[in-house]
Design goal:
The protein is mostly helical and 143 residues long. The protein has six helices and no strands. The protein has one domain (2-139): Cytochrome c-like domain (Cytochrome Bc1 Complex, Chain D, domain 2, Orthogonal Bundle), CATH 1.10.760.10. The chain has helices at residues 2-25, 29-39, 74-81, 88-94, 98-108, 128-139.
């Protein structure tokens, strides 16, 4: 009986992961546009966008981290130099907790000494469905 419960829990976890992956692939760009209004406190996107508190996010999907003309934290620049590229997965992992993501990324690369300061982004977006929608919206402004 205990083993059956473990198998059911594992199956439920697998479905949850599969559902999250599907949500990333199937984000709603129109809803993402609405959610992105929260991001507009710091970021701009689209033709003619300029940096404000945060960098322009036009073309962010597929871009190496810390490379757009902006005053990034040293930790963000270091993550980019270590190979961080903003794809759907990295953005989805970053948005719930930017600081924790960058620390984990550099530590996993064997470079914890490159964590020199906190990233400037303090906003957190934790809901996987909303993250998928924002990513879908960002993708409409990327190659």
């Amino acid at each position: 009986m205990g083993l059956t419960l473990i198998y059911r829990a594992a199956a439920a976890a697998a479905l949850l992961v599969a559902g999250t992956a599907g949500a990333l692939a199937d984000g709603d760009a129109e809803n993402g546009k609405t959610i992105f209004k929260k991001c507009m406190a710091c970021h701009r996107i689209g033709e003619g966008a300029v940096n404000v508190v945060g960098p322009v996010l036009t073309g962010v999907v597929g871009r190496k981290a810390g490379t757009y003309e902006f005053s990034y934290s040293t930790t963000m620049k270091n993550a980019g130099e270590q190979g961080l590229v903003w794809d759907e997965k990295s953005i989805a992992d970053y948005l719930p907790d930017p600081s924790a993501f960058l620390k984990k990324y550099l530590t996993d690369k064997g470079k914890p000494e490159l964590i020199t300061d906190a990233p400037k982004m303090t906003f957190k977006l934790a809901d996987p469905a909303l993250i998928a929608d924002v990513i879908a919206y960002l993708k409409t402004f990327s190659k």
